[in-house]
Design brief:
single chain, 197 residues, alpha+beta, Jelly Rolls, 11 strands, 32% strand, globular
Length: 197
């Protein structure tokens, strides 16, 4: 499912170095990561899932239940792949983190006015957060994934179809947000965590 270029030994070493050295906390951005045809199938399948509206002071978006329980065959294949030993070993090589626990993964849709305020994702077993963005947006659309150093936003990633972002989860360190969607656009993604055992 991963494009061949990302599996080459030298590329893996290069990406692992980027993960270690990227600021403000360890992360790596993998564009066109999965095979294109498969990603299109995943996006189409996700659009058929049932989403629940989530609203609080911290957030506003629509979310599926954890994909471990999906009835959709394509999403089952995708979740099984994410949760499989081959993928976990690949993530371990990139991040040098123990990620051999159960993977958490859900679908998300952010519409006009939706957002996720700054937070660090820190819960006991979470080691590496991931986001697979499934829509192309422009900067003026909003919906960027933003990384913070202290209270200052220092990195922004505009949503692109088939962009897979990995970042470490560290208390008070891995602070990030999804900026408000400013236009009548949707930001569709699958996100979650590779957990420790």
């Amino acid at each position: 499912m991963i494009r061949e270029e990302y599996l080459e030994e030298e590329r893996v070493k290069e990406l692992a170095k980027k993960f270690r050295t990227n600021k403000p906390f360890s992360h790596v951005v993998l564009k066109n990561f999965f095979k294109e045809e498969f990603v299109k199938k995943v996006k189409g399948a996700l659009e058929k899932e049932e989403f629940e509206r989530m609203d609080s002071d911290l957030l506003s978006f629509e979310q599926t239940k954890d994909l471990s329980g999906t009835k959709n065959e394509i999403l089952k294949v995708f979740y099984t792949y994410l949760n499989g030993i081959e993928m976990k070993e690949y993530i371990r090589r990139l991040t040098n983190k123990n990620v051999f626990g159960k993977v958490d993964a859900s679908g998300f849709v952010y519409c006009s006015g939706d957002y996720l305020l700054p937070h660090d994702d820190c819960l006991e077993k979470r080691r590496v957060a991931f986001v697979l963005t499934l829509t192309d947006l422009e900067e003026e659309d909003g919906g960027s994934l933003d990384f913070f150093k202290g209270k200052k936003k220092v990195r922004s990633f505009i949503s692109e179809e088939n962009m897979f972002i990995l970042f470490e989860v560290r208390e008070n360190k891995s602070v990030h947000q999804v900026a408000e969607i400013l236009r009548e656009k949707e930001r569709v993604s699958i996100g979650g965590w590779f957990n420790g055992e």
